[in-house]
Amino acid sequence: MKRYIGIDPGTKDSGLTVIDINFGLPEITYIGPYCKMTLSLYAGPNTVVCIERSTAAPKMGAVSAFNYGVAYGKLLSDIEHLNWHSVISVTPAAWKAKFGLLKKPKSASVKKVKQRFNTSLTKEQIKELDHHMADSALIALFVYEGV
Q1: Could you give the 3-state DSSP secondary structure of residue 33?
Q2: 17-29 burial string, b = 16+ CB within 10 Å, else e?
Q3: Distance between CA 141 and CA 31 in Å, rounded?
Q4: Cα 110 to Cα 137: distance, rounded to the nearest angstrom
Q5: Can you give the pLDDT at residue 147?
Q6: Dihedral through CA 121, CA 123, CA 127, CA 129, nearest 10?
Q7: Would you put residue 91 in left (φ > 0), alpha (ψ -120 to 50) or beta?
């Protein structure tokens, strides 16, 4: 079984999704806020970590860009600490273009995940789903479908 872990970094909230590939079909095993302990629980030899590459946005101020970079660095440190060798960094433009989300509101990724994974998400997961969690799912799915 192959496993993909998607991470959407944020300054305060980050999303984490674990997608397992069973019989060629992607299924969400975990979706929720980022937690280092959760990340370590799903570590394994057949796991690929997919993280959105950190870049400053055009309208982002210097302090915001710095804080975002620090948060991104902490996530990379967590991944490094777990000795993962299979880490793929993807640009926001690449994965958003694939799913038709460029220049769309953040709620569009939530809608896309609900459509794509409606059978593997519980009612509670659907209710709690935010854009960080949805983005992390789409980042993992982007890498899986591109491999």
Answers
A1: strand
A2: bbbbeeeeebebe
A3: 13
A4: 10
A5: 58
A6: -10
A7: beta
Q: What single letter denotes the amino acid at residue 112?
A: K
> For residue 131, how far is the Cα from the chain centroid?
10
Closest CA to 5 of 75, 69, 107: 75
Sorted by where each begins, the domain ranges of the chain are: 2-146
| CATH topology (fold) of 2-146 | Nucleotidyltransferase; domain 5 (3.30.420)
75-101 tens-digit pLDDT: 999 998 888 878 999 999 999 999 999
Q: Which residue has the tokens 């609900």?
A: 114
**Distance separating alpha carbons of residues 27 and 42, to the nearest angstrom:** 14
Q: Tell me which DSSP letter residue 82 carries.
A: T
- Which ranges in the chain belong to alpha helices (H)? 36-41, 62-81, 92-98, 107-116, 123-128, 131-146
Q: Which two tokens stand for residue 77?
A: 């440190």
Q: Using one digit for the tens of pLDDT, what is the confidence trace for 34-59? A: 998 999 999 888 899 999 998 777 78
